[in-house]
Each structure stands twice: as structure tokens, then as C-alpha cells.
Amino acid sequence: MTTATTGKLQVGDQAPSFRLPNQTGAMVDLQDLLGKKHIVLFFYPKDDSLICVAEVCAFRDQYEVFKQVGAEVIGVSSDSVESHQQFAAKHRLPFTLLSDGDSAVRKAYGAMTLGIFTGRVTYIIDPQGTIQNIFSSRLNAQKHIDESLRILQQH
């Protein structure tokens, strides 16, 4: 099921800044990432849930392709740093996972389903910080990867 994102953000908007800990506890600031590459920022509901595992593993399996098209992949959920550390190790994830414990960044991006549930939403952010694409599908994890690569390969 693919649904239009009903959050505040739209294509063409500036991506909200954030500073969150990654799976090693190091702080990651969006401002430090801008100017270098496109960013594929995907919000997912929970580490180790069935569809989330499928999604992160699909991003992992295509990670080299994302790098070749000049993009960095970053996953975000409200799980703890420790949970992310175990999740990343278990599935050999080569990309960053960010811990958004209070869901403030998720809310700032509008990555919710029906405004209340944690959504599965992917944002393509260009090097200037502008949102180029927003894709939401709670159940079709693979489509997030396919749609992201389709958009990035057009740039």
C-alpha cells in the first residue's frame, strides 16, 4: 500500500535540521552532511520487526549502488543506540542508523501514518538540503529502495 505523505513537508522544502546519536553513540548533524552528497533519509518503525528487517537489508544490498550515484543512506527510528548497534551488527549494515528516542525528528519530517503511527517514509535530500522526493509505503519496503534509486539516477 503506497500512500501520499500527509506531513508538513513537501518536495522543494528545506529539510529540517537534526542532531541525533548513531549506533555507536556519536552525534550526527544534518548540517555536517550537506554540501557533499544526496542523502537518503528513511524513517522506519522498529528494529528487528519483519518489514523493517526487509527494508534495511534491501538498502544494505543496494548500498554500493547508492554510493555510486552519490548518495548516503541513513535510517532513523525511535529505538535506542544499543538496539541500533545490535541491529546493525546482526544484519551487517554499512550505513548509519540514528536514534530518535522522542520521535522529535520523525514529527518534524511528518513521517507518520494517519498522523499518529510511526510511518515508513523515505526522503531524498539534495546536497543543498532541499527535499527532492518523499515516498511513503508502510508495507512495501522494497519500493523505498527502488523509488530512491529511480530518483537519484535522474540527477
From TrEMBL:
Alphabetized Pfam families for the sequence: AhpC-TSA (PF00578)
Record keywords, A-Z: Antioxidant, Disulfide bond, Oxidoreductase, Peroxidase, Redox-active center
Database matches in InterPro entries: AhpC/TSA, Peroxiredoxin_AhpC-typ, Peroxiredoxin_BCP/PrxQ, Thioredoxin-like_sf, Thioredoxin_domain
Species in which this protein is naturally found: Herpetosiphon gulosus
Subunit field text: Monomer.
EC number: 1.11.1.24
Domain Thioredoxin: 9-155
Domain of life per record: Bacteria
Protein's UniProt name: thioredoxin-dependent peroxiredoxin
Functional description taken from the UniProt entry: Thiol-specific peroxidase that catalyzes the reduction of hydrogen peroxide and organic hydroperoxides to water and alcohols, respectively. Plays a role in cell protection against oxidative stress by detoxifying peroxides and as sensor of hydrogen peroxide-mediated signaling events.
Family note: Belongs to the peroxiredoxin family. BCP/PrxQ subfamily.
Matches recorded under CDD domains: PRX_BCP
The keyword Transferase appears for this protein: no
Catalysed reactions listed for this entry: a hydroperoxide + [thioredoxin]-dithiol = an alcohol + [thioredoxin]-disulfide + H2O
